Amino acid sequence: EAQVTQNPRYLITVTGKKLTVTCSQNMNHEYMSWYRQDPGLGLRQIYYSMNVEVTDKGDVPEGYKVSRKEKRNFPLILESPSPNQTSLYFCASSSLAGVGETQYFGPGTRLLVL
Amino acid sequence: QKEVEQNSGPLSVPEGAIASLNCTYSDRGSQSFFWYRQYSGKSPELIMFIYSNGDKEDGRFTAQLNKASQYVSLLIRDSQPSDSATYLCAVNIVDGNQFYFGTGTSLTVIP
Hints:
The complex is a heterodimer. In chain A, 0% of the residues lie in helices and 50% in strands. Chain A has strands spanning 4-7, 10-13, 19-25, 31-38, 42-51, 54-57, 65-66, 76-78, 87-94, 104-105, 109-113. In chain A, strands 2, 4, 5, 6, 9, 10 and 11 form a seven-stranded mixed beta sheet that branches. Chain A has a four-stranded antiparallel beta sheet with strand order 1-3-8-7, with no helix packed on it. Chain A is built from no helices and eleven strands. In chain A, a hairpin with a 3-residue loop joins strand 4 and strand 5 (42-51). By secondary structure, chain B is mainly β. Chain B is globular, with a radius of gyration of 13 Å. The A-B interface holds A 31, 33, 35, 40-45, 48, 50, 56, 58-59, 90, 97-100, 102-103, 105-108 and B 4, 8, 31-32, 34, 42-46, 49, 51, 88, 90, 92, 96-104.
């Protein structure tokens, strides 16, 4: 089954404790992306990757890191989480980023930073 | 100014009616436009995309794009209670790599 998986699905942590949210897709997609969703602000793009070893900042990259060492995986790293990073995070992938290409979203990771 | 703007609603329509959802965008270089549906607690799923001016129909859904007015809309005909969800408008900007989403419009279809 074609899918995007994220782990963990729920996470409660404390300020400053490094964490990683994993994202994996089994569709051999080149393009992967991370979003956060907050009430009243909608979905905002954090980082995206066009292919292995190619990553770029989205609209709200501050406080986040990513890596793309393998095509299927695109982990999101919070080196020193802060309460304002409490949010719902989605990973997405698509074959390309261009016209008409749909992004497939993972199930989401709900993060609470105390 | 936000890249993509939507009326947050809530929008309520009776079952069987036409629901009309609207979206405006600020970047004239935007290339393609997407409508996603998101049920509460779930991830967004694509309904339609459009990149040429005019209408595009898919079943009960019609997307309309007017690049001169920087406006894209989604019409849902014969609305069903199962259409009750938040609808997200998204645009893909000039370089094709970044996506901007609106805040979404909440739709309730009343049986």
